[in-house]
Amino acid sequence: MEDSDSADHSAGKTTKAERTGTGSAASGAGERDHFDFIVVSNRLPVDRCSAEDTGCEDGWRRSPGGLVTALAPMMTKTDGAWVGWHGAPDETVEPFSHGGIDLIPVQLSADDIELFYEGFSNATLWPLYHDVIAPPEFHRTWWDAYRRVNRRFADAVIGNAAEGATVWVQDYQLQLVPKMLREARPDLKIGFFNHIPFPPPEIFAQLPWRRAIIDGLLGADLVGFQRSSDAGNFMRSARRFLGASVKQQQVHVKGSDGQTTHIARAQAFPISIDVKQITELAKRPDVIERAEQIRRDLGNPKTILLGVDRLDYTKGIRHRLKAYEELLQDGKLTVKDATLIQVASPSRERVEQYRLLREEVEGTVGHINGTFDTMESTAVRYLHHSYPIEEMVSLYLAADVMLVTALRDGMNLVAKEYVTARKNNDGALVLSEFAGAADQLKQALLMNPHDIDGLKDTIMRAVNMQPGEASRRMRAMRKQILDHDVDLWSSDFLAALAEKVVRDDS
Ligand code: F6P
């Protein structure tokens, strides 16, 4: 049986301006004592940068990835603080405000970055949680660093959280933080959201520290996942590796004295995007004009295909290029009529698997272009850059076919952004069934990216889709996303976290 408290985590609390006494949202987070609401993630929404980096303003630029895309809109409207790493090794930065958000930086040394971030987070957990597409590496020194750094994030929260505050911990880099918070501060309401998939117990079993990870996550009152299959996988692991008794996706968690400390729940909360921002940009004359210019600059091809990804082996970029190259070879597509724009934003460049992927993708693009380009037309316009959201929306408006061919993806917000930008209900989305977004975007052209012939057929269906069918599909997908934007995601999660849960064990 459950009953509901207020979902408004700032209700009855002082406002930003009241607490700083300045009336200004630009004052530093350092002026506060304690916060009633704290988000904690590995990265802050902004990263340290230098003047020569694209998008760098006043020494800061937007951090990469879907997590920031999803959380930043809520945090600009919320009276809370964001604890995270600011992207530069060995630099101590005092709490500050940026873009209307109070930020509390956590310092990582060059060693922490190598062992905790590049090592355990991105060469152990990342491949393990993404269907072992790349082989995960298990090193005890990396695990030690993971524990040490998780403790530092937990301490930063503990030092800044008001009595009874709500703390929302984000993603796989910080899975030990919920339990660390629970032990030090039982007064806190603790939520956790995993932005990436959670693997089935048969794969999770490989992790030497599987019990500690499950135990860490069960420190939360509510553990959120992208898909219900992820929540199910987590609870099956809790049962198998900790012997937890799971009923209706709930576990009674016991302290060292054997007494129940709290009930931890697991549930799916599919993440979304800032619909208002994308729809407004898609209507802006300069953004529309830029989309037209992109098409002109490419020589006015009949069909523009688009891929937008972090340069990551989970995104299926190699499979996409293979299918596209074969379509050119087969003569089903020609460079006069079609161009593929592939935006591959730089990511985790010091991790070996990412270095290898970049070499392979760039070699393949060079090979395709060398074989098929003419003086007038190019097969693949490859861009190893990150772009501001305005440019991304222009690309979405220019693209007739969007290719999302992930081999495994927690959600994939690019798919949702593309659909949202298509205000005229045209264009086609080719979407991998292994992306979380496939659960919501059922009218996309769903496919298995491992099946290259199937992928080729699906791309051709998208290229040749009749306007009536395209419009029917796009309309249905847009309705789904417009009705489920990121504000609803965060308010649903926080409302569920605020619920008082009583489990009937009879
Ligand atoms: O959502 C997955 C995620 O790893 C986020 O946690 C992260 O912010 C984003 O992708 C980008 O990855 P990174 O922080 O390693 O550059």
Strand order of the largest sheet: 6-7-5-2-8-9-10-13-12-11
Question: What gross morphology would you assign?
Answer: globular
Whole-number total of structural domains: 2
Number of strands: 20
- The low-confidence runs, each spanning 5 or more residues with pLDDT under 50, are 1-28
Average pLDDT confidence is 92
Total DSSP helices: 17
- The CATH class name of the largest domain reads Alpha Beta
CATH homologous superfamily title of the largest domain: Glycogen Phosphorylase B
CATH topology name of the largest domain, in short, is Rossmann fold
Q: Please give the CATH architecture of the largest domain.
A: 3-Layer(aba) Sandwich
Quick structural gist:
This protein has 506 residues and is α/β, with parallel strands linked by helices. Helices cover 41% and strands 20% of the residues.
